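Lab manual, section 2.4: Encoding a predicted structure.

Procedure: take the sequence of the chain (282 residues), apply the prediction step described in section 2.3, and record the output as structure tokens. A sample record is shown.
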Amino acid sequence: MNQVPTIKLNNGTPMPQLGFGVWQVPDDEAAQAVGSALEAGYRSIDTAAIYGNEAGTGKAIAASGVPREELFVTTKLWNGKSETWGRDNVLREFDASLAKLGLDEIDLYLIHWPRPMREDFVAIWKAFEEIAASGRAKAVGVSNFRPADLERLGTESSLVPAVNQIELHPLLPQAELRAVHARLGIATEAWSPLGQGKDLLTLPAVAAIAEKHGRSAAQVVLRWHLQLGNIVIPKSVTPSRIRENLDVFGFELDAADIAALDALGAGASARRIGPDPAEFDF
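Recorded output:
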């Protein structure tokens, strides 16, 4: 039985709080990885056009036998600088993603990066409004948007993003941005929720909490996210770790555990693994 709780997005669409990410999974391995995840009980799958594995993800979905209505599929627009982005090319890329996935509709479509220096994400969002109105995406949102970017959308559109998918883990807890999300009614989704394993999972504070609960360091960090209300999409291609990352509902962190994990990225200790959205252009 799938025990993953759901988060109700601001348009009423339910989204599983824990899903499976496929960043850096080659297309020819995606079918097996996603198939293992679906077999383990995951029902939310997160891919993106730039990942190059929408086709493999779609093959796994088709072969799984899981009814489409039980699945939540996310993909993202790669709004690269090779084009000036407007309605027509956004809709073209959306259609291409649907075709690769082998789906008639998706559950969530995201703008992958704001590229604020290019001044085009509002025009892209206008096309996203059209996609949402068509029903071919049950919800639309953004990824890597800063508070200023979200405020800009709010002045230009009445459609509030359902989700902002951001780098978020105990070393970069994003408290300010999460507070903005709460005020605007945007769900917070964490990419690299385990910090890509770099440093985070071997820290003594994390290891001590894991030992206390008889769990792995990854399970402790995922539990931290869930108790904060974040949506998480851990990635693995190893079947045992895929199952382990889903097995995070049989224990709870106490207030001291949460405080210890919160302290890891407090103030000047916070550090990014990925690019800074204020500067990232591609």
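Check your result against the sample. Residues 10 and 185 are 6 Å apart (CA to CA).
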